[in-house]
Structure formats: C-alpha cells, structure tokens
From TrEMBL, chain A:
It comes from the Bacteria. Keywords: Cell membrane, Membrane, Transmembrane, Transmembrane helix, Transport. Residues 72-285 form the ABC transmembrane type-1 domain. It is found in: Cell membrane. PANTHER family: ABC TRANSPORTER PERMEASE PROTEIN, INNER MEMBRANE ABC TRANSPORTER PERMEASE PROTEIN YCJO. The chain crosses the membrane at residues 12-35, 76-98, 110-130, 161-183, 212-231, 264-286. It comes from Hamadaea flava. PROSITE patterns: ABC_TM1 (PS50928). InterPro entries: ABC_transporter_permease, MetI-like, MetI-like_sf. This is Carbohydrate ABC transporter permease. It is a multi-pass membrane protein. Pfam families: BPD_transp_1. Belongs to the binding-protein-dependent transport system permease family.
From TrEMBL, chain B:
It comes from the Bacteria. It comes from Hamadaea flava. Its main location: membrane. Keywords: Cell membrane, Membrane, Transmembrane, Transmembrane helix, Transport. PROSITE patterns: ABC_TM1. Belongs to the binding-protein-dependent transport system permease family. PANTHER family: ABC TRANSPORTER PERMEASE PROTEIN MG189-RELATED, ABC TRANSPORTER PERMEASE PROTEIN MG189-RELATED-RELATED. InterPro entries: MetI-like, MetI-like_sf. This is Carbohydrate ABC transporter permease. The keyword RNA-binding does not apply.
Length: 295, 274
C-alpha cells in the first residue's frame, strides 16, 4: 500500500516533464519521419485527407535539388573550417587564462565568455554593421593599413568565412570554460614531478597538459561539430543564405522550405537527413575515440 | 631568478589577454556607440568612436514608432512562463533522484537521449503538433515546446541525489505529504542549484529565437528577438536604430551576468562536464 502511494508520488513529480518531452521531442521525430514520406503542404494542413503518401519521392527530389547540394557543401565547409578554429581558439585562450589566478585573470575570463550568452540576433545585427562594405568599422580599420575594402558579405566564399568568424567569436567562450574547468582539474603533482625531471615548458604543454585534456577536447569537438551542422541563425539574419546561395546551410534550407514555401513533407525529408548526419558523425567520433584509447 | 622570469611571463600573458579582451569586446563597444549616434553620423567615414552628437532618439524610436514595448512585454511573459518549466524540471530531477518506479531507468535513458535531437529536426513536426492543438500564434505555444529540457533535469537529479534520505524520511514521519516534503524540505536546501538554473532559464528564454520566430506569426505576438530580426530586414541601413535594438537585447543579460558571473560560469561548467 505504501509502495503504491510512492509510485503515485513519482508520477506527480516525473509525469509532467516526461509527457512534455514525449510530445515535443520523441513524437516529433516520428512525425518528421512520417511526414517525409508524404506531400504534406499548406493545403494538407487544412485538409488532412488531401495528403498523399509518396514514398521516397522527397528524398529523390532532395538528391537532385541543386540548392540542397549547395546547402550540404556549405554546411560541410562550416564544419571543416569552424570546428578546428573553435577548438584551437578556445584551448589557446583557456591555456593563457590558466596561467594566472588573480582577480585580473578572472575578470578577463568574463570578457571572453560574454559573447557566448549574447542573443544571437543581436550578434548578427551588430556584425552586419561591422561588416558593411562601404562604411563598416572593419573595412575602415583595414584601410588604415592600406588594405582594399573586403566584400565581407557580398561575395559567396568570403561571406561564408565572415559568418564562420561570427560563429567562432560567439562559440569559443563557452568551450573555453570547459577547457578551463578541465585544466583546473589536472593534479599539480604531475607538473611537480615533471619539474624535477627538468622538463621544458613546451614539453610540459605537449606531453602532459594536452594529453590530459583529451576528454575535454573530445567533448568540445563533438558538441561543436553538432552545433555547426545545425548552423542557422547567422545566415538567417545576416545573409538570408546569399549571396548566390553562398551561405545557405542545411538548417536554413529546412526552415525556408518548411515555413516560407510550406513544403512540409519536403522539408521534413531534409530534416531527417540532417538528423542522420548528426547521428553518423557523432557515432564516428565516438568510434575514433575508442580506438584512440586502445593505443 | 626563475620566479622573476615567471612573473614577467605572467605579466606578458596578462597584457596579451587584455589586448584580446578589447578585440573581443569591439562589437559591444561599437553597438553602444552606434546606438547613441544620430542617423547622419552612424555611417560616417572615418567613424567616430565617441559620438560627436549624442542622442537617445534611436531608443525612443524603438518604443514609439516601432512596437518594441509590445515585444518587450511578450518577452517578459515568455520569461515568466519558462519559470514554470524550471519548477517542472526540478520536480522531475527530484522524482528521478528519490523515487523508484517500474521502468524508471528506461524512462530516464529516453529523457537523456532527447538531448541529442536538434531543433531543426523537431521544428516542423512541433509546428504541426502545436497547430493541431490550436496553439500557433500564442505565447503559450512559444514557451511550451522548450519548457522542459533533459539537460536541466539531469543537473537537478545530480544535485538531489546528494540530499540525505533521512531528511526526507523525517519529514514523512512528521506526516508531510510528498508535495509538502518537496516544497518545505527539499527546495529550501537547494538554493545553489536553483540559483544557477534560474539564471540559465532567464538567459535561455530571453535569448530564445527559433520557436518564437516559427510560432508567433502576428506582430503583436513577436518577442524582442523576432522583432529585432524583422527590424534588420526593414531598417537594414538605419544602423543607429538597429544598434539600439541590439543593445536592448544585450544589456539585460549583461547586467545579470555582471551580478551573477560566478553562478553562470559554474552552471555552464556543470553543463559542459556532464
């Protein structure tokens, strides 16, 4: 009897959250998978009986859609360029910040962390102003050094790099905190032992510190990769995918097809592919890590 | 000898970090400076770091000729509603930490697995679900999908497992029910975790963008982020007003950050090292 009432207690505490997660996280995956096999659009939303099952037609269409191809290549570039940049920048800043423990160093930490908690739309708007070709601050500063104006957001490839720069500026601070936490968890004895053996600072860094940061580096790499695969807000606000679809990402492609064109079935198919990509990349990273440990 | 050298090294590193901090802060400084410049000055070349002519007109324009007052009110409602989520997450964390029920581990694994699911995959189906519930274009619909997050439940669970069972048994022996035990005994000893989670909840709901963008279709349901994104499309050349809008978004979080830096960093560290 007492046990029963405890089960009821558990239901009261856990139930609402589990229900919300089921309705808004688990069920949607199934709905997305189902919708991706249909021609669901705005008409179908009003009249469900008009929705037709079309099998893998949406996927076939995606594979021959030039815009989707561009979005996939761009997203790949965001990952390939963005992930190493964030890992290196956040690690470098964390190593430097870890060299002191005074108030000054803790205060400085705040400056590097601040972009991470800043609203992404505000970030995009501010950087749009900095990037203005004719009257932006960045081109003015470059002109002081005699550099020709850079078409930050006006040329497809440069625009990609410009958006990556914003992503790194915003994303590095959070990862820096993770590295800093890991650095502070390294026992001092390792360094004391190394000092007795007469190890140079460079060896100390490459032979002790960086190997001991392996778990943090792995965590940062996996989460950052997932974040770049989902890259959305910067291209949405700053370039709307342009110029010439040069900054179009898969996530933006899904949004535009779903909510601008109301082609829900087609967009769902793209979102299923995005989900699969994330699962595969994450699984590969875990697999690589396992073989890495076996060494 | 070596300690003098390390002191010099530390000073050099501090100097380097200070230069880096200034560089990282340029967008914020430029935002503040641009937000108080008149339209005639904001695109001047060479740019003026300190405005020659100081004006609040960009801020007043946001709230008088544009609807930022409405967006601000909506954003505040969204923030308040997400604090219901904070309570639900705390309850779930407590339930998973202190109760046993059939299938608990399986349910908990499913809860944790939802962390892997990206927003872009759920956004279309969630919109369809909200549409079926008649909640599109309502602030409830804006808040509901993000009300509960697995990650916060996980953090709460970690904390609640450290509360001794004897404390709970004592309360039950005194005749307190489960809810009463939770409210009167558990929550009062959970100050630190509640503080961290409250701050993170504020920042996340204040900054939320994708759901409000999708769900709020009428302008009177826009939040600040959505309003600012819209403004960017319409006022793309009036940078003074845009910078004022950005400042309205950034400054509250900045103020919270300055006062709660320690908690925020600790919260994010916990979130990183799950």
């Amino acid at each position: 009897m007492r046990k029963l009432s405890r089960h009821r207690g558990a239901l009261i505490f856990v139930g609402p959250s589990v229900l919300l997660l089921l309705v808004f996280m688990v069920v949607p995956i199934l709905v997305a998978a189902g919708a991706s096999l249909t021609d669901l659009d705005l008409r179908g939303l009003a009249d469900p009986s008009s929705v037709e099952f079309i099998g893998l037609e949406n996927y076939r269409r995606l594979l021959s859609d030039e815009l989707f191809g561009k979005a996939a290549v761009n997203t790949l570039l965001y990952v390939v360029i963005g992930v190493p940049l964030i890992v290196v920048c956040s690690l470098a800043v964390a190593l430097l910040l870890n060299m002191g423990s005074s108030r000054l160093f803790r205060g400085l930490r705040a400056f590097y962390f601040l972009p991470a908690i800043t609203n992404i739309v505000a970030v995009a708007v501010i950087w749009g102003y900095l990037y203005n070709t004719d009257s932006g601050l960045l081109n003015y500063l470059l002109s002081l050094g005699g550099v020709e104006p850079v078409p930050w957001l006006d040329q497809p490839f440069v625009a990609k790099l410009s958006l990556i720069l914003v992503g790194v500026w915003k994303g590095a601070g959070f990862n820096m905190i993770i590295f800093l936490a890991a650095l502070q968890g390294i026992p001092r004895e390792y360094y004391e032992a190394a000092a007795i053996d007469g190890v140079t600072p460079w060896q100390r860094l490459t032979r002790i510190t960086i190997p001991l940061l392996r778990y943090a580096t792995f965590f940062v790499t996996v989460t950052t990769t997932i974040a770049w695969i989902q890259f959305f807000e910067e291209p949405f606000v700053m370039t709307d995918g342009g110029p010439l679809d040069g900054t179009m990402s898969v996530a933006l492609f899904i949004y535009q097809n779903g909510f601008n064109l109301s082609d829900f079935g087609y967009a769902s198919a793209a979102s299923v592919l995005l989900f699969l990509a994330i699962m595969i990349v994450t699984a590969v990273q875990f697999r690589l890590r396992r073989s890495d440990v076996e060494y | 000898m070596s300690s003098t050298r390390s002191r010099w090294l530390r000073a050099a590193v501090a100097a380097l970090l200070m230069v880096g901090a200034v560089v990282v802060s340029i967008p914020f400084l430029w935002m503040l400076s641009g937000s108080v410049k008149p339209e005639s000055e904001v695109l001047d070349i060479p740019p003026t770091l300190w405005p020659q002519e100081f004006t609040w007109s960009n801020y007043t324009e946001l709230f008088t000729s544009l609807d930022f007052g409405v967006y601000l009110k909506n954003t505040l409602i969204v923030v308040v509603l997400s604090f219901i989520g904070l309570l639900l997450r705390a309850m779930a964390g407590y339930g998973f930490a202190k109760f046993d029920f059939p299938g608990k581990n399986a349910v908990y694994v499913i809860v944790l697995a939802t962390m892997m699911i990206p927003d872009q995959v759920t956004m279309i189906p969630t919109y369809l679900i909200l549409n079926a519930m008649g909640l599109t274009n309502t602030l409830t619909g804006v808040v509901l999908p993000g009300l509960v997050s697995a990650f916060n439940i996980f953090l709460f669970r970690q904390f609640f497992t450290t509360i001794p069972n004897e404390l709970l048994e004592a309360a039950r022996l005194d005749g307190a029910g489960e809810i009463r035990t939770f409210v009167r005994v558990v929550l009062p000893v959970s100050g630190p975790i509640l503080a961290i989670q409250a701050i993170l909840t504020f920042i996340a709901s204040w900054n939320s963008f994708l759901w409000p963008l999708i769900v709020a279709t009428d302008q009177e349901k826009y939040t600040l982020s959505v309003g600012l994104a819209l403004l960017e499309g319409q006022y793309s050349s009036n940078y003074g007003v845009l910078m004022a809008g950005a400042a309205v978004m950034v400054l509250p979080v900045l103020v919270v950050f300055v006062f709660c830096q320690r908690y925020i960093v600790r919260g994010f560290m916990m979130s990183g090292l799950k």
